[in-house]
Amino acid sequence: MVNLASEYPVRILGFDSTKATLFEATPDWTPVAIKARTYPGQNQDLLVPGTHTAVLAYWQAESAMVYRIVKTIIEHGKEFGELHPGGLEFTIEKTRFFVEKHLVPMAFHPGAEQYWREKRVLREQH
Questions:
Q1: Dihedral of the CA atoms 100, 105, 111, 115 (nearest 10)?
Q2: Higher confidence at residue 7 or residue 33?
Q3: Domain positions in the chain
Q4: Where does the chain have alpha helices with state H?
Q5: CB–CB of 34/46 below 8 Å?
Q6: Secondary structure of the chain: what % helix, strand, coil (to 5)?
Q7: Residue 126 pLDDT exceeds 50
Q8: Distance (Å, rounded) from C-alpha 81 to C-alpha 126?
Q9: Nearest alpha-carbon partner for 38 in 84, 96, 77
Q10: With contact defined as beta carbons under 8 Å apart, do 99 and 122 qualify?
Q11: pLDDT band (50, 70, 90) for residue 122
Q12: pTM of the model
């Protein structure tokens, strides 16, 4: 989006933060904060609708590598969030919420599944 905004005039419209509670009725959408000056001409922080962030991995990717990636993202969420606002979306609590509400659209990669089982987000099926 930043590349597009540098070529064409783009105006991002936000919504009033008091309306953020409306997202509770649709848990697959969430309020996302866009920091001021993310886009040319955007002089204030904006709250926009967004969907949850996901990391996708090739199914044949090495499990140990995927495990390390997930662990690093979760354990360094604040630093990841400084690089990209979506980085703050990767939390144990949010992942647990999506799992419990059956909002995860596909199976976890075995490496990610191992991490989420260790954090008790996923439980053994009986």
A1: -20
A2: 33
A3: 1-51, 53-126
A4: 2-7, 63-75, 77-83, 92-100, 110-118
A5: yes
A6: 45, 10, 45
A7: no
A8: 36
A9: 84
A10: yes
A11: very high
A12: 0.63
